[in-house]
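Let us work through a complete example step by step.
Step 1: write down the sequence.
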Amino acid sequence: MHSEDEASKDGAPKDGSGPGFAIRRLGPGDIPSMRALNTLFGRAFAEPDTYGAAPPDDAYLADRLAKAHVAVLVAERDDAVLGGLVAYELDKFERARREIYLYDLAVEAEHRRRGIATALIRHLQAHAAHRGAWVVFVQADPGDGPALALYDRLGTREEVLPFDLPVGARPLP
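Step 2: predict the structure and record it as tokens.
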């Protein structure tokens, strides 16, 4: 439990921790935690091949984890990854500002409904403010009720239609 002097005005601990877990940003030396997070993502999203069939080598992961514009946050207890997120900064041209795109977020099934996802997002919001971002945005699938409920509670819903465009398409004449 955290004492009052360790908590912010909204009751969240200043360090991003919660009851029974701590949140931290991964760095280039955190390869085992990154691999554990990718395994978690594979299970949570029912995409084990996407997240585990062709894992990148340690140098690739270390390089990505060293980038200032990539934020990988994990919730841990006793060095075990309970949940985590991956977010990317997008620098804008219309104004001197950036946006943060929360790309992946998952919590191990047995640790859900304990405030871990909310704590991860709150930690990302603080990181975004520190980096000068003006918004954090995330997409959710229409059928993912728990994610939609979480994001509705924490933000404002927009109706958008995402499209996947093929890479390497020939230019138009």
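Step 3: interpret the result. Residues 1-16 have pLDDT under 50 and may be disordered.
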